[in-house]
Amino acid sequence: MQGQEILPAIAAHLLDSARANGGKAPSERDLAEYFSVSRGQVREALAILESMQVIERRAKSGIYVNTDKSGFEAMAFFARAGIPLENRQIYEAVEVRKIHEIKAAELAAVRATDEDFERLQDVLERSEQRIAAGEGIDALDQEFHLQIVRATQNTLFLSICTSFYELGRQRLEVYFRDPERNRKSHEEHKQIYEALVKRDAALTSALMVSHLRGVMSYWTELLEPHAPGS
Amino acid sequence: MQGQEILPAIAAHLLDSARANGGKAPSERDLAEYFSVSRGQVREALAILESMQVIERRAKSGIYVNTDKSGFEAMAFFARAGIPLENRQIYEAVEVRKIHEIKAAELAAVRATDEDFERLQDVLERSEQRIAAGEGIDALDQEFHLQIVRATQNTLFLSICTSFYELGRQRLEVYFRDPERNRKSHEEHKQIYEALVKRDAALTSALMVSHLRGVMSYWTELLEPHAPGS
DNA sequence: CGACTCAATCTGGTATTACCAAAATGGAAC
DNA sequence: GTTCCATTTTGGTAATACCAGATTGAGTCG
Question: Of the residues A35, A69, A103, which one is the last residue of a structural domain?
């Protein structure tokens, strides 16, 4: 635990401590000692966590962890840090991600440039190679979907969707262990690409809907115990 | 500049310095002296800005500002800090916000609870009072729209949309200086509310589309010089 | 026993000082 | 003009000290 990112470690420790202590986290000095770093380092990490609304620092009182807060920034950070999310958060993220990707497909069909098409085709070719070699296309799947978002020419849109992908990266790897899923996913990607080239927004969008239905059901199936929304 | 948030000030100063200096920002020591704070304070602010990808800190080299980076977190922060955005960023934000709100209206029609309806009605009543008193409903407008998002029962969705509102708050105030706009906006809000109560998702969504067309055109008109996406 | 009081303690907020080592710099040597 | 090396600059990190409000707990009073 040296010279490296202590932020994730501190975040995880704060969450644990707070859970066992009614929202109250250890003091800065305790944290510094626990992680064998200076108080300054701890304060830098806490400043970031506070900016993400993960914690609240009350002067002369202590550090309090915002439970249940599911801010976008915080979720993206947790995902990146490998801190597990609650089922409800995953449900919500899946839903919001679907909304984004479907709309992105629609917009991309209208706005995609020649370079966008080239990049998509490149991803498809590399996917083909990996499938032929019996390897998973999890990274390529991400590239394909994000490239479509990029084709909307809206960088803010891309920024948000990129964060969503970080949310589900780990599960994606598991998903693409199954060769059949790889093949099916790739076929659907090709169909979506064809619809994009035709600039058929409605068709692209519809294909994306059904494509995501398949992929996303994998997530929600894993969470079955916890009933949706209600 | 004491005891208070120096983060916005430092952010603004970094952006200025970098613009005039090819991406390179002053050193931590210079910043500390410039703002009359300790280096520790500067480092806390820089840590936050780095976590938002606004800057990059290269060890033993310097602080570099990521120009053109339009990450979601950074934009929300800039808006909150009162740092002006570029036209392109505003365009993108308006587009993404529209996508969210339209979909939110659709989902809310299906999922809104009795409490949601009560809160919406409350907002409408208060709006009525303010309009009768000849006051602007800018804050209520925000409440209304966010309450609809809240009615989707998706807290992540709400978190994202809340950030979007921060993006346009200042312009909203100006917009609602016009009594006619207040009246028209309120009328449309009432129509949307009626559609929601009927749980008519398609109608709610359609009404939101036309409502936003009116409101949003105000933004884009202000930016005319920069042509839209294509 | 309970409620109140007040001093000791804890805590975040801030500043100062000091080192380290790698990067950047600038001038000397070729 | 190029190469090379010593000096300076810079971010990264630690240790220490104070402040003042919040918290706590012991002691006191009713």
Answer: A69
Q: Which stretches of B111-229 are assigned E, i.e. beta strand?
A: none
Instruction: Residue B51: give its domain's CATH number.
Output: 1.10.10.10
The Cα–Cα gap between A47 and A57 comes to 9
pLDDT of residue B224: 54
Contacts of B86 in chain A (CB under 8 A): none
DSSP A159: H
Contact criterion met (CB below 8 Å) for A77 and B139: no
Which has the closest alpha carbon to B143: B167, B119, B164, B179? Answer: B119
Query: Do A99 and B96 make contact, defined as CB atoms within 8 angstroms?
Result: no
Q: Which two tokens stand for residue B61?
A: 């080299």
Q: Is residue A78 part of a domain?
A: no
Task: Spell out where chain A has E strands.
Answer: 24-25, 55-58, 62-65
Q: In which residue ranges of chain B is pLDDT below 50?
A: 1-3, 226-230
- Among the three residues B19, B41, B69, which one is the final residue of a domain in this structure? B69
* Residues facing strand D, Cβ within 7 A: A 3, 36-41, 58-62; B 25, 27-30, 39-40, 43, 46, 57-63
> Straight-line distance from CA A193 to C1' D16, in Å?
63
- Count the Cβ atoms, other than its own, within 10 Å of residue B229: 13
In this complex, do B229 and A111 lie within 8 Å of one another by their Cβ atoms?
yes
A111 and A58 in a single domain? The answer is no
Which tokens in the block code for residue A118? 């080239």
Q: pLDDT per residue over B53-70, tens digit each?
A: 999 999 999 999 998 777
pLDDT over 60 at A114, yes or no: yes
Which of the 8 DSSP states describes residue A200? -
Number of C-beta neighbours around residue B111 at 10 A:
16
Residue A46 has pLDDT above 80, yes or no: yes
Look at residue A227 and tell me whether its pLDDT is greater than 50.
no
Give the number of other Cβ atoms within 10 Å of residue A70's Cβ. Answer: 21
Q: Which of A73, A88, A64, A38 is nearest to A160 (CA)?
A: A73
Residue A74 lies in a domain: no
Residue ranges in B112-154 assigned as alpha helix (H)? 114-132, 138-150
Residue A112 CB partners (closer than 8 Å, separation 6+): A120, A151, A196, A199
